[in-house]
Amino acid sequence: AQSVTQLGSHVSVSEGALVLLRCNYSSSVPPYLFWYVQYPNQGLQLLLKYTTGATLVKGINGFEAEFKKSETSFHLTKPSAHMSDAAEYFCAVTLYNQGGKLIFGQGTELSVKP
Amino acid sequence: GAVVSQHPSRVICKSGTSVKIECRSLDFQATTMFWYRQFPKQSLMLMATSNEGSKATYEQGVEKDKFLINHASLTLSTLTVTSAHPEDSSFYICSARDWQGEETQYFGPGTRLLVL
Q1: For a 10 Å CB count at each end of chain B, is N or C smaller?
Q2: HEC assignment per residue over A14-77
Q3: Span A93-111, mean pLDDT?
Q4: Cβ(B115)–Cβ(B10) below 8 Å
Q5: What is the pLDDT of residues A81-98, one digit of tens each?
Q6: Which residues of B98-107 are buried (b: 16+ CB within 10 A; e: fewer)?
Q7: Which of B46, B91, B103 is nearest residue A51 as measured by Cβ atoms?
């Protein structure tokens, strides 16, 4: 069965600094990978996804992630943090034969200091 | 982009009453919708998978008689919390999967349920 691990339940960066949120997965077959962002008391918004093709995926709000099969990773990055990036971030995985059922990581809370 | 709405956004009810939460896909047809529950500072827990025109599939440990799910059309799924109790208080989030099988779920804004 597949699983997702997000390293670090809380990450704090300064405004303008690099954002790196880590996500590792386990899967016996090639996965589909997602990053979602959640602001307080709101639902989840899709940042980006990897299904097939180019392993470097660009998303909204300047975020990108790279699928590295050899490392079973899908880390999320942004070159320069903005105050508005402060939120909870979830990495998720599904397989092509899972009917769309997502398995979520435990989440990483990103804080941005002025 | 794909939009999913939920109604109500917040509900307070007395213990023993039933509460219905609606989830709608506004600009696409969703053959599959999912219902999640989220506790404070925690990840999303999948409760059930709802397929249009068929019975919902519940995850292990979720009481199907307590959390009734109806997926009556390609744009609407409802979750009814029957005989709600304080321990049912939570944030409930739905998501919808595009009917064309795109492997992306679009999430609703969530419903905050407080049972007194």
Answers
A1: N
A2: ECCCCEEEEEEEECCCCCEEEEEEECCCCCEEEEEEECCCCCEEECHHHCEEEEEHHHCEEEEE
A3: 87
A4: no
A5: 999 999 999 999 987 777
A6: beeeebbbbb
A7: B103
The verdict on A100 touching B (C-beta cutoff 8 Å) is yes
Task: Please report where in the chains the tokens 């799924």 appear, as a residue.
Answer: B77
Give the best residue of B103, B104, B106 to mutate against chain A (max A CB count within 10 A): B103
Cβ distance B81 to B28 under 8 Å?
no
pLDDT digits (tens, 9 = 90+) for B77-106: 999 999 999 999 999 999 998 766 567 889
Q: What is the Cα gyration radius of chain B?
A: 13
